[in-house]
Structures are given as C-alpha cells and as structure tokens.
Amino acid sequence: MCLYDDSPRVMRSRLQGPGLLIRIMAAALTLSLLLxxxxxxxxxxxxxxxxxxxxxxxxxxSEVTGKNFxxxxxxxxxxxxxxxxxxxxxxxxxxxLSILEVHGxxxxxxxxxxxxxxxxxxxxxxxxxxxxxxxxxGDEMVTRVVELENxxxxxxxxxxxxxxxxxxxxxxxxxxxxxxxxxxxxNIDRMLKIIKRIDIPSSDEIEIITLQHASAAExxxxxxxxxxxxxxxxxxxxxxxxxxxxxxxxERTNSILIGGGKSGRLRIRAIISHLDTPLENEGNTRVIxxxxxxAKDLVPVLTGVSSSVEQxxxxxxxxxxxxxxxxxxIQADENTNSLVITAPPDxxxxxxxxxxxxxxxxxxxxxxxxxxxxxxxxxxxLGVQWIADGTPGGDGPVGVSNFSGTGASISSIAxxxxxxxxxxxxxDGLTLGIGRFNDDNTNFAAIISALQGDGTTNIxxxxxxxxxxxxxxxxxxxxxxxxxxxxxxSTGTTSTPTNPxxxxxxxxxxxxxxxxxxxxxxxxxxxxxxxxxxSIAASSVGAADLITNKRSVKTSVIVDDGETIILGGLIxxxxxxxxxxxxxxxxxxxxGLLFKSKNTTKDKTNLMVFMRPTIxxxxxxxxxxxxxxxxxxxxxxxxxxxxxxxxxxxxESPVLPALDEFLVEPPPFKEVPLDDTPSNNxxxxxxxxxxxxxxxxxxxxxxxxxxMINQLEFQDTIPPQLPLPEEVARKSANL
Length: 735
What we know:
The chain is an alpha+beta fold. The chain has 15 helices and 25 strands. Mean pLDDT is 76; it is low at 1-18, 237-242, 671-699, 701-725 and 731-735.
C-alpha cells in the first residue's frame, strides 16, 4: 500500500510545510487511517482520532462503508473521535453523520453518490422523504410531512419553531392542515412525539339545555353580564379564561347552547337550573310594539294560534289541567300600534316568534297602465229631395220626396220658407236648393245635400298606482257627470206648472283603475285588475240624455317584475251603408240619382290595454321611481314657464322645486342676545344683501332649469309613452 501521495499538489504541500516534524506526523496519521480502513473490511473497528482532517475522515468512511462521496469545496475542518468499543459498518456511518452535523455539514444522497454540503444548502437539496415505515436514522437529513387532525397547523408553527435549528425548515399548509419539516431524523422524531401529545381532541363539548319556564335570550343576557362582572373584579386578566363558557341562545327552541371547559359548564348549568323555575303567578303580561303590521289585524291571528296551542297542550296531557289553563287575553292598542298579551310565559314565547315573522316590511308594487286607442271615422252622404205643390192652379198634384239620411228634411225647410222665417236646422256639408215659389200654377223645390267627413282619434292614457303587497288600491281620474233619472211637473188647478223638479244621478266618467297585487316566490306578481275607461259620446242623437262610451277590463294575470303584459284589446271595423229612394223612380239609371239618397259610414277602432308591474323592495328603488316621475312633471312645468302666459307677460307659471332641495338640511338656529340687537340702520344693509341673495338664487334656479331642459328634449307633439326601465334609470341620472 502506498504511504505517500506523490501528486503535484501533495509534493508542493510538503515542500511548503512548516517543518519536517509536522510532515512526518501527518504521514503517520494517514498511514494509520489507511491501515485501519483495510482492516475494518474484515472486522469491527474502533475509531480514535484527534485533530484529523475531515477530508481524510471522509476517505476512511468511504473505504469502510463502500459509499461514494462528492465533497463540497467549503467542507473543511479538524475532527476528533473518541471511541471505547468497536463498531460495525452501519454504526460507523451514523457516527460519520453525527460528525458532519457537529461541524455544520450534511450528507445528501443523490442516486449512487452522497453529496457533502453545508447545512444551509441541505434543505434546498433533494433530501429523502421520511415516512412511518422509513423514518430515517440518527442525524440523517430528511423531510417529513405531518398531517394534523385536531389542532390547526398554523397554531403549532410558533410553538415548534424554537425547536428547529436555523438550518432546518418548518412551514404550515393551512388548506390541508399539514406541517412540512426538514431536519435531522432524530430531531424530527422528537417533533413527532411533541405533536402527538398536542394533536388530541379538545375536552370542550357543547351542551344544549332546553328551558321550560324562562326565556333563553333573557337567561343568556343575565349570565353574560354575570361573567363580565366576574372578569372585571378579577382585574380583567386572562386568569380562568380557558374555563370561561360560551353561551348562545336559540330562541326557536328556547334552548341555551353552552361551550367551554367542563368546570365552567357545570357552574353555568347550576345557575340555569335555579333561573328556570315557574313563577308563583302562572299568568304573565307582555307589551309588544309593532313596526310594520297593524295591531288590530294581528289580534284574530294570534287568538287562533293561542287556541290551537291550548288544544294541543290539553290533548298531550290527556285532558288534564295544564299550566296553560290560565285565561289568555290578547288586546290591540291602536294609538301605539302595540299588542298587550296576557298568557303563560311559554305561550308568550310562541306568540313572539309568530309576531316576529308577521311583523316584517312588505314590498310595494308600482303598476303602470297604458290605454291606447286609435280610431278613424269616415263618412259620406249624397241625396236629392223634391217637393211639388200644384194647389195654386187648382188641378196640380202635391208630392214630397223627403229623406232623413242626408240631414235637414226639405219639408221643414219649405215650411220655414213659406212663413218667411229662417230654417231651424241646416245639415252639415253642402246644401243647394232650387225651385219656384208663389206661382199661380205649380210651386216646386229641390235640395241637393252632400257631405264627406274624416275624423281621427288618438288617445293615450297612462295611469300609475303604487300599493303594498296584498293591499287593494284604486285611482279615479275623471268627472262626475249628472244624468237625469226622472222629472215631475204638477199643474194643479191652473195651467202654470207648480213645484216642478228633476231627479239627477251623478256618475264618474273618466279612468278608474283598481288593482290588488300579490308577490309570489321569486319576481312574479299576481294582479287582480278591474279597469274601466268611460267617456261621453260626441253625439247623442236619438237618445233621451247623454251617451257614454265604456271600456272595461276585469281579469287576473301573473307577470314578472318589470315585464309588460297586454290585458285586452279591441279591433273594431264597421262599415254602414244606407240607401233611401223613391220606388221605381230611384231605380232608373242615372236619372234615378235625383230620387235617391245614399249614406256611407266607416268606423275603425283599435284599442289596447297594457300593464307593467314593478316590485319596490327597498328605499333605493322607491327613490328611483319617485325621482323619475317627479322630474318628468317638473320638466313639463318648466317648458310651460318658458312659453309664458298669454296676455300676462309679467307673470310666471308655478314650477315644482328641485327634488334635491328637499334633502338639504336647514341652517342651524343662531340665538342673538337681546343686548346685541342691531338698530334699524344696521338692519338695512342686511336687508339689501338678502334681496341681492334672493335675486342670485332666482337666477341660479333659472339657469338650472334651462340646463335641465337642454338635457331632456321632450316633444309635445308626441303622446307620452311608458318609459322602459333603462330609460328611467338614464333620465334619473341626467336629472
């Protein structure tokens, strides 16, 4: 075996050594290590080294264990080993790992070789994973993943961090409640033992105590106040905090949930047992103030509920008297909108739960209706009437060709002409008369009547109504028109009527809208609708009194929130033709037109009724709906003001104030001492300044009104249309 290394590096080291003695000692130590390595392959060896170079120790361990090492250039140092008994090959390797750990180095297996690097870089290298089956031995550098079951991983990190060396690694993965540890196998084994002692189920339990007589919420309030006062007397320190119980009241089952340490729970249970005792007087009176519901409306409901509960209690007790046999009395105080309930405590708690669910803010529904009617009326009339009188000659005939379909009859006109007076009625259109009068032989006259009419009607009504859910509402826009229902005239003994009178009945003529909305689950609304549109007919010829046109719709529909639905409609197209003629003469071609009267009428009516509900659940939607309608009518008033008043140029039409002015707080009240009251001369400048301020405010208001008109371009020639939801939002934003 070669005792010396004749490589250039060793030779250079030998030549540059401090002395011959040191070189001899180094050569002897190397020789002893080599001889020890050769002998160790056959039998256990004993390691006893003093200030040996760590590189030489690595070489020796490699010879003994047969492992291949890659040594980092930073691995340097002197090693001292004292052993009193021989060791096997595996024990030698474990001692070697301990030597590396003491000097701040680690052995990281990578395939068939082992890298020896500083500890600071070991945790970033592919060190092996340890498990329960292969936990690692001694000072071997390993990584371990620990799953926790009862304790949060993030809570263990600050506890275990001081036990991990600086070169180790400890982290928590919160979503999986996992700890990741990179360190020596022996230290990780110690960590696992600590974690096992900590990661155990908590001794805290949850107890549920159902109360029979007392109110759970009231008992929890009393016990919480008691615990706070106890901690305050203790100085507010953490002493006994781990024994402090947690109290939660379940009003639905009238139970108390208790959590915390066992001793604290026992103490709370003892207190609750003393508090949950029946009162000496079985009756109890409670005043409950309502916020939204009407007290008088809830009395029948609560009376029925209490009777049902009373019957169930008697049935459960086999008809025996129960604690609820005390008379139950429920009264409503309308002045304060409150309920006064006298009943046993357990029944009062049941009624309170019912009241809590009934006394809620109900949603509102805005119903917008469109009544659109477009009608066209065409008429044409043409006729010829004759009259002949041969009585002046004594032998002439007398005849009249009189038709009523073309307006005034020729007989009435002739009678007026004979008396020299003006005819009472002349028909519309062209009336052309020819004839000869005051003749000694025969008088005759002829009237030609011609009329053509064309009328168009476009009516758009948009009544709007807001009401609460399940509440009927009605809006009436119209006039009360008197209709004669009877008359009486008594002449008595004279020809002059005495005490005449007429009976009159007034009826609404206009638009009537009656609705009852019901909001279903989701955004659907059920509407019970009764709508009527009445108007007075333009003509009442042949009628005893006025004629009214009536359009009525009564139905029930379901429509989604914000959607438009058609309620009904009418498309009416009528054509009427009438011909009046003289028999035989009216059938003569061409010549028969002189003995004939024709009248043709065509009426076409298109009527549609639409409706759109909007659910209003909160104040934001209420403000949006209100502002859109408010700003629309205010803009119409501003347009009317700009047009001015006829014959009154100095006057202005009224305009609603801006909606934002209602939200401005008034200026704070400032008290003025009596001694500091200014004189009349001092008040004059303030008065002038107030006048100027008022003029400035008026100018600012007018500029704001003009700017609003520029932003909203309303066309007066177009009938108002029902805005869509996005249009409402846009107009509200602009205003």
